[in-house]
Structure formats: structure tokens, C-alpha cells
Amino acid sequence: GRQGMMLAQRYPTAFDGILAGAPALNWGGLMGGLYHPQAVMNGLNDYPADCEFEAITAKAIEACDGLDGVYDNIIAQPALCKFDPFTVVGQPAACGNNTNTTISQTAAIVANETWSGILSQQGRIIYPGYSRDAPLATITNTGCVATGNCSLTAWALGSDWFQYYVAKNVSFDLTTITSANLSRFVRAGMQEYDSIIGTNDADLTNLKNSGTKLLSWHGIADDYIPVGGTIDYYNRVAALDTGVAEYYKLFLAPGVHHCSGGLGAAPIAILDQLIAWVENGTSPQTVPAKGTALVNGTFLKRNLCAYPSVSVYQGGNGSLASSYKCVNPTQLE
Q1: Model confidence pLDDT, tens digit, residues 233-255
Q2: Comparing C-alpha atoms, which of 71, 101, 67 is closest to residue 81?
Q3: HSE (side-chain half, CA atoms, 13 Å) at 166
């Protein structure tokens, strides 16, 4: 996905059409996002078990599942989900053979900050947080030798970025990065490397003029690359050019993890649609999608909507694409 966006931004004439799935657009910000929950735990000097985060995610899905009118363990309307993790502190968390573990205050703090995104010193969001149904345990990544005895096992991609590329010190103590100073490290990485590997330039004038078509999609429950980064990028492109849909379209897939997985329906034959757009001028209004996991005894079928439109249940069989309609999100307010 990031390679596709690099082509669109820097080499727009290299291809007639570009398909970019789940793009890692803002590399420096993404590295901060991957390390964010660990930075919060560093500041609190407390590392809850991953099963606590799994329990919080399950509670969030339970609370917001029905907002679209269908109960399928998917948060299809994340903008409407206001679940507060502090409301489930003290509730049970399934942690293997240990039946006494409960959701801790620390786990709720970590979840809340990870969902909220990375804030600057002035309180401005410099990188968006993860959706409430994205599996938090993917990036919290703690290891426990016994109940209450857990430690950080930081996922290498985020931790290596700060250790080797930003601090440039193999002995750098990663536990000194906390939520209080994380933004400083993120900005340092952006300032040094964006000109080399950055793919976050919203000015797609050259792409538009080249006639190249850019088709992108992203799972809303992506547990590696927050979907908010892709949404923010599209919004910034649209702010510069109201005719963006003539050459760049984005489709969001509820309940889908990073590129695949999850209970949601992922795009099928999307490359065929790009080809049709390039060769025949057939601009995709929806993208057919299908689930790979059984939901209520069947595989989901959906028609993903071109952003900013969202898919809204109209009645009937909730597993069929025909039961949904793409509408303007303002109609949900």
C-alpha cells in the first residue's frame, strides 16, 4: 500500500492505475502508533496482560455492534461508537486457566489513549488512534510469567525505529519513551526521514494531470495501520481538490483487520475494477466484498461504499449485500 502511494505522489506517470491496500502513509507517525500503548505502559510502570486488552476490545464490540442495526460482532459505524473502557474496569478477563483476572485501570488507560491517538504537547492529534474493534493485543504485546508479573515485549518494528533510526543508539533504553514524550520522538523521526520515505503528501495534482487512477481500500479494524491515517489523508486531498473522486477513490471495510482477517467482508476482484476504471472509464461506486469467517452461520457479503459514503442496513437478511445502501454519513447524525 505504501509503495502504491509513493508511486501516486512521486511517480504518477509510471502506471495507468494504482491499487493501494491498507497503506502505511505516514511512516513516522505509524511507528509512533505501533509503540504508543507500550509508551503509555512505560509511563505507568505497569504492563497488563494481553488478555485484558482482548477483553476490552470484546466489550467495545459488544457495546457498539448493533449501531448499524445488525448484530454480527462488527462495529460497522465506528464514528457512532463512544464506548468508554473505564466502565468495564474490574470486570472479568479470560486469561487462560486463571479465572481471577479482571480488567485493570491501567489497561483502560492504555486502551483509551491508544484509541485517542498521539497528541502533541499542545494537545493536537499528530497521528490517529486505532478503531475500538481493532485487536489491541496485537500492539500491546506484553508477556506474563505469572499473574501480575508481566513485562514489555515491544513489537520490533516500532521499537527498532526509535532505537536505531531516531535515537541511533543500540543501547537506548526504550522504557524511557512514555506518553508524555512520545510525540517528541515521533516528530524527530518525521523531520529527519519524511523527505526520504514519506508518503503523506496530499497534493496529487500531478497524478490528476497524468490521468492515472488511484484505488485504495482499508479495513476499519486494522490492527497494524490505523484506518484513521488513510481517512485523514483522503480528507486532506479532498480539501485541496473537490474533484478528487475523478482519479482517487477510497473504500473502507468494516470488521476487517490488516489487509485480511477479522469477521468483516474484504474486497474481491478489486483489481478488475481498477482495470475497468482505467481501460473503460467505469468509475467504481461500490466494491463487492466477502467475508472469510462464518458470522451467524454464513459468510458475509457486502458492497463497500466509496468514502465518505457509508453502508447502512435497510432491513432483510443482514448477511446479504442487498440489505444495505450507501448513504451520506450526515444522514446518520
Answers
A1: 999 999 999 999 999 999 999 99
A2: 67
A3: 27
Cα→Cα distances 100→137, 156, 310, Å = 19, 31, 41
CA pair distance 150, 47, nearest whole angstrom: 6
Task: Compute the CA torsion angle 78, 126, 33, 195 (nearest 10 deg).
Answer: 130
- Residue 200: count other Cβ atoms within 10 Å of its Cβ: 21
Q: Which region, left, alpha or beta, applies to residue 22 given φ > 0 means left and ψ of -120 to 50 means alpha?
A: left
What is the identity of the amino acid at 195?
S
Show the cell assigned to 226. Answer: 490505523
Using one digit for the tens of pLDDT, what is the confidence trace for 144-183? 766 677 877 777 889 999 999 999 999 999 999 999 999 9
Q: At what angle do helices 27-44 and 227-240 cross, to 10 degrees?
A: 140
Rounded-to-integer distance, Cα 310 and Cα 324, Å: 10
Do 88 and 143 form a contact (C-beta atoms < 8 A)? Answer: no
Adjacent-strand bridge partners of 313: 324
| Sign of CA pseudo-dihedral 175, 180, 186, 191 | negative
Q: Please, which residues have CB within 8 angstroms of residue 310's CB and are 6 or more apart in sequence?
A: 77, 326, 327, 329, 332
Query: CA-to-CA distance for 16 and 278, rounded, in angstroms?
Result: 7
Phi, psi (deg, nearest 5) at residue 36? -55, -55
For the chain, how many residues are written? 333
Check if the beta carbon of residue 128 is closer than 8 Å to that of residue 233.
Answer: no
Q: Give the integer Cα–Cα distance in Å for 25 and 23.
A: 5
Alpha carbon distances (Å) from 205 to 16, 39, 143, 238, 292: 15, 38, 47, 11, 38
Q: What's the predicted TM-score (pTM) here?
A: 0.95
**Rounded distance, CA 136 to CA 159, Å?**
17
> CB 10: neighbour CB atoms within 10 A?
13
Encoded amino acid at 48, one letter: P
β-strand 213-219 against 17-21: which pairing, if any?
Answer: parallel
Q: How many CA atoms lie within 13 A of 79 on its CB side?
A: 12
